[in-house]
TrEMBL record:
Signal peptide: none annotated. It holds the Pfam family His_Phos_1. Transmembrane segments: none annotated. PANTHER family: FRUCTOSE-2,6-BISPHOSPHATASE TIGAR. The keyword Hydrolase applies. Keywords: Hydrolase. Gene3D superfamilies: Phosphoglycerate mutase-like (3.40.50.1240). This is Alpha-ribazole phosphatase.
């Protein structure tokens, strides 16, 4: 049976507001981000969710905790849902890091990973979902690498196309994993 997946990115972090590419650094939500996380919960609490999966990075965990506080929906942390590891470039200005993003599609960032490696890491999460969650609706709180993996492995969008596209935030993306 298929799994319905709702993907939401972590809420606005202090680094987002400062234009910093956090990568594998933990990051913390800003005041605005905390308000938006509560709004996420209000949007999704009664959405028929069997579980919430979140990246284990602080900004994603904080989003899930605020959104689903006082509910019975289990929140499960999974390191495979992390953002791409920019290695030595974690914490640098986002505009500088992302101007040559396609250069790192297959070549790892110094001391980190490539986008293809990050997307493959997330695909292992997708491969494990049917073991327990077939026929359910789940929510995933992740990052750009999480969305790229879902778009690539579920919707068949080439990574080259994703790397060249601008990221535009929205209130969740819906996927169906057969």
């Amino acid at each position: 049976m298929p799994i319905e997946i709702v993907l939401e990115t972590h809420s606005v972090s202090q680094d987002n507001e400062r234009g910093i590419a956090t990568g594998w650094r933990p990051g913390r939500l800003s005041e605005r981000g905390r308000r938006l996380a509560v709004e996420l919960g209000e949007r999704r609490r009664k959405d028929g969710l069997a579980a919430v999966f979140t990246s284990d990075l602080t900004r994603a965990v904080e989003t899930a905790s605020l959104a689903f506080a006082d509910t019975d929906i289990p929140i499960l942390h999974d390191w495979r849902l992390r953002e791409c590891d920019y290695g030595d470039n974690n914490g640098m200005p986002a505009i500088e890091l992302h101007q040559n993003r396609s250069d790192y599609l297959d070549k790892p960032y110094p001391g980190g990973e490539s986008w293809r490696q990050a997307v493959h890491r997330v695909s292992r999460f997708l491969g494990d979902l049917p073991l327990r969650w077939s026929g359910t609706r789940i929510l995933v709180i992740g990052h750009v690498a999480t969305r790229w993996a879902f778009d690539h492995f579920i919707n068949g969008i080439p990574l080259e196309e994703l790397a060249d596209a601008d990221f535009s935030w929205q209130e969740g993306w819906e996927y169906r994993l057969a």
